[in-house]
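Final report, Chapter 2: Outcomes

The project's central promise was a pipeline that accepts a single protein chain and returns its three-dimensional structure in a standardized token representation, suitable for archiving and comparison. That pipeline is now operational. To close this chapter, we reproduce one record exactly as it appears in the project archive, with the input sequence first and the structure output second.
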Amino acid sequence: MNTLGRHIVVEFYDCPAEIMSDVSLIENAMLTAARDADATVINSTFHHFSPFGVSGVVVIQESHLAIHTWPEYGYAAVDVFTCGETVNPWICYKSLKEAFQAGYGSAVEMGRGQMDILEKLEDYVQMPARHPESKPVAYHKRNIWYTERGENLALSLRHTGEILYKEQSPYQKVEVIDTFAYGKMLTLDGMVMTTEKDEYVYHEMITHVAMQTHTAPQRVLIIGGGDGGAVREIVRYESLEKVVMVEIDQLVIDACKAHLPQIAAAFDHPKLELHVDDGIEYVKNAPDESFDIVIIDSTDPVGPAEGLFTDEFYRQVHRILNNDGIMIVQSESPRYNTEVFQEIYECFRGIFGSDQVHCYLISVPTYPTGNWSLAFCAKGNIHPLRNIDLNKIKSFSEKEGLKYYNEDIHVAAFALPNYVRNLLNEKVSR
């Protein structure tokens, strides 16, 4: 060999999209390819860009293997660079072609560092040779990242590299990933839904604000909420007669029962009536004035949740609320989903009345911008701040050991920054 290294530039075509978007599978395939070629792995760093594919590199003692995938085209661009005479990059090529189930591949090899034109520096001091009986110490550090990426914003979380749960339902892709900073994380179609470390913020605020404001809530309906966190909070109330939960996707429930049991802790509660069904149809067929509180715990207005963001659906919710009933809806981020945020509140005001709709804010670090909103909509004259028994809230919060919600947070959440006030007062452009 008359070069310092061998570099092959590879293209794989007709690869299954699910493989091209599976960061753990790709990382394992790249590591296996390196080891098949007798390379010494030093480090691996991989990013999953939902829904844009995977980028990654395996650093080997002999140089590197790098990849970027385009799942929508079934395509992967790979390069393998090895130095020395012991590692054959074509072994990597064959290993990866098989692992990626590529229909076909192409590659070109280049010699890097032509010895005929290189001159060793005279003042270069070479390290002493290793004792022939000693073995190199291989330390492999994995560095794998999950990225939820929007058009202008991204959230990245480092995780262990093992996908704890991954199934495709008729509605969405359901995954549970073990992250280092926020524990186990549930994602649906590549969007973060909840994590072990910050779930209590969302679940406590979507439930207790209404439950503490209503004078005597006995029947509660939850649409969505398949992780079980809202149910867990609702069944804390002894006065509750029944909580009905309607979740369209059984796999969400299964995933959370298996891997997020502290969130899905109340699915066996005797006061829970669980329906795996279409929440829109359930509300449409429910009797008039049959619930005290309705909680819409949905994803963003895409996929199976799209129908929950319509005027007709919210009119049906208004119909099934008692005269002093309350509807709580996750109403997107005023900073991230500004247009949807404004449209939602315009819709609610048209149904419940302008004075009966109140926005309150929560802080969820793993949601885009961390700044999220919930809508409090009252059918009667009930108000989230007037005549609130703060001592009752304080006692409840302390008794139940809540992590976020208390008497001060109840009041403070409705204090809106000027930019949010302005958004809510602006006319939505069509």
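Archive annotation: Residues 199-425 form a domain with the Rossmann fold fold (CATH 3.40.50.150).
This record, like all others produced under the grant, will remain available to the consortium after the project formally closes.
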